């Protein structure tokens, strides 16, 4: 897929990069980003209008999502046989500006980079239990190394008591959040009644109608809100899977962007081995619970994501806005 020369190539390259980046994960599929291609550079911006103002007032999850989009841009540049040059932006007058990603020197992509690139559109958030059984040998070690390469740590939760505690904290958070009408309204905004062909949010084909309880059980988001929506069919998995916490040593804007890059890198590496991830971030959205998890279970590092990994039997759907809708300037 080495690029040809000329202005036509630049348009094609921008399209390819943005087409890939939009498949990054984001809370409630808010897709809080936009892109500005110019020449051999794509500038990534956050879209603060799409931040979850109730669940994510600080914009932490919004920036984790932008970090995931940034990693995807970098990987797409590698797939083109170029080295990505990333210039992180920090302009108080333009707080939405995240980074310039520039097509740098030529260098062929490695086999692993090519295979990870192939997972960008294949990857899906899983919701529910997993198939019983172990993960591929060596995968967890590899995931930890990938997180580390992005200056984050992936803490695998092996102690059964800690798994039980984290599951219980997810349940507490889910119940506490649902007591807040503004939170429920926000979920309803992003997971509306099924209709038409949405381009964002969580469609009813993205979560199961029925899930078996796993042991321990990690609460899912209540996207169906008692309406009976959700995908029918498939064998619900019964295993919790491997529980992990993605953490960073600091807790500022740059750390959140690092966490997002690490997240997407880990997710794509897992997908390469047909391993899916389920996210449970409710407890990290309740400040007291996040602080508890940080102090008790993360050795003082800052928990950014709570994830379960496993092999899923169900196939869920997801949607995205097309590249043209999230691009300012020529594609
Ligand atoms: C910061 C962040 C937090 C998330 N939290 C949850 C969560 O608590 N529950 C959940 O089911 N999905 C969660 N997700 C996954 C998103 O809902 C998912 O990425 C989005 O709906 C798009 O679907 P896809 O990942 O299958 O493409 C989270 C994603 C991110 C980036």
TrEMBL record:
Tell me the domain of life: Bacteria
Q: What is the lineage of its organism?
A: Bacteria, Bacillati, Actinomycetota, Actinomycetes, Streptosporangiales
Name of the featured protein: Nitroreductase family protein
PANTHER family on file: NAD(P)H NITROREDUCTASE RV3131-RELATED, NADPH NITROREDUCTASE
């Amino acid at each position: 897929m080495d690029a040809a020369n000329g202005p036509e190539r630049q348009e094609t390259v921008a399209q390819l990069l943005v087409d890939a980046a939009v498949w990054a994960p984001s809370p409630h599929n808010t897709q809080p980003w936009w892109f500005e291609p110019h020449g051999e550079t794509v500038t990534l911006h956050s879209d603060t209008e799409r931040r979850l103002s109730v669940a994510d007032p600080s914009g932490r999850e919004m920036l984790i999502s932008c970090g995931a989009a940034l990693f995807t841009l970098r990987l797409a540049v590698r797939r083109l046989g170029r080295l990505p040059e990333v210039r992180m932006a920090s302009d108080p007058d333009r707080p939405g500006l995240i980074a310039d990603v520039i097509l740098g020197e030529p260098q062929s992509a490695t086999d692993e980079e090519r295979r990870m690139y192939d997972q960008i559109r294949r990857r899906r958030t899983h919701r529910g239990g997993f198939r019983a059984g172990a993960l591929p040998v060596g995968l967890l070690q590899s995931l930890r190394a990938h997180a580390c390469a992005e200056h984050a740590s992936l803490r695998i939760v092996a102690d059964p008591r800690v798994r039980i505690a984290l599951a219980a904290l997810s349940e507490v958070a889910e119940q506490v959040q649902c007591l807040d009408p503004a939170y429920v309204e926000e979920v309803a905004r992003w997971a509306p009644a099924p209709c038409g062909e949405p381009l964002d949010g969580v469609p009813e084909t993205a979560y199961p109608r029925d899930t078996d309880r796993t042991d321990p059980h990690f609460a899912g988001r209540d996207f169906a809100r008692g309406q009976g929506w959700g995908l029918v069919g498939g064998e619900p998995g019964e295993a919790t899977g491997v529980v992990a916490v993605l953490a960073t040593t600091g807790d500022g804007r740059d750390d959140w962007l690092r966490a997002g890059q690490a997240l997407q890198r880990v997710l794509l590496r897992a997908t390469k081995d047909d391993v899916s991830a389920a996210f449970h971030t409710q407890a990290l959205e309740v400040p007291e619970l996040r602080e508890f998890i940080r102090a008790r279970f993360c050795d003082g590092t800052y928990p950014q994501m709570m994830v379960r990994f496993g092999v899923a039997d169900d196939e869920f759907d997801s949607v995205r806005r097309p590249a043209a809708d999230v691009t300012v300037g020529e594609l």
